[in-house]
Write a structure and sequence with these properties.
single chain, about 210 residues, alpha/beta, four-stranded mixed β-sheet, 9 helices, about 20% helix
Length: about 210
């Protein structure tokens, strides 16, 4: 097998499985086991976006903390989520903080959909630290939102990970990860210039294919 940089071979937030029934969420170069179907559906992790990878590669990855609905929320939830409490406020959970989305227009610009919302108790929402308000000027003063797809003014597609933009070096990776154009956030030149650039997502499919 061709040697792959395990820390960046797969983007954060990708669901994968090998030849058995176990499903994992990729985060920061580790595979986080999904505890059960209840946890999978609670966190709105869609199996239609899951990809199959070769067992040897999967087995070579370190296990991260299990994803489960019950228990310590911060410890067991995915690192990036779209969440809400009992009122109309909607947040992006990212990097251990809640970033409130200012308006329905910004919600649409981020290409979120209502079915992606994860409901959390108001007491939990109140206890979690807050990040900056995501409003119309957010991308002019703050870096990328994780787990979102971006179209840059240079014509390339980027993926937000750890508040950086990772360029897809091969356009066909877009369909490999089962993304679609309806998920693209179009950045202006000024917004793009403000976003730090991370390591590109290279074409490693020959290594990962089942």
């Amino acid at each position: 097998m061709t040697k792959v940089n395990m820390s960046s071979a797969l983007p954060d937030g990708i669901l994968v499985r090998g030849s058995d029934s176990s499903v994992y969420l990729i985060e920061r170069g580790t595979k986080r086991p999904i505890a059960d179907p209840e946890s999978l559906y609670h966190y709105k992790l869609s199996l239609k976006h899951m990809i199959r990878i070769e067992d040897g590669f999967l087995n070579g990855m370190n296990n991260g903390e299990m994803i489960r609905r019950c228990g310590d929320y911060v410890r067991h939830c995915p690192s990036t989520l779209l969440v809400r409490g009992g009122d109309s406020a909607v947040y992006v959970w990212m990097g251990g903080r809640l970033f409130p989305i200012a308006t329905s227009g910004m919600f649409r610009r981020l290409c979120y959909q209502a079915h992606q919302l994860v409901n959390l108790p108001d007491s939990l929402i109140a206890s979690l630290p807050r990040g900056e308000l995501i409003d119309d000027s957010f991308f002019l003063s703050h870096s990328a939102i994780d787990g979102r797809l971006y179209s840059g003014p240079d014509g390339f597609i980027y993926y937000g990970e750890q508040r950086k933009l990772r360029k897809l070096e091969v356009p066909s990776l877009f369909s490999y990860f089962r993304w679609d154009v309806g998920q693209l956030i179009y950045l202006t030149g000024e917004e793009f210039a403000n976003s730090p650039i991370g390591e590109p997502i290279a074409d490693f499919r020959s290594t990962l294919s089942a």
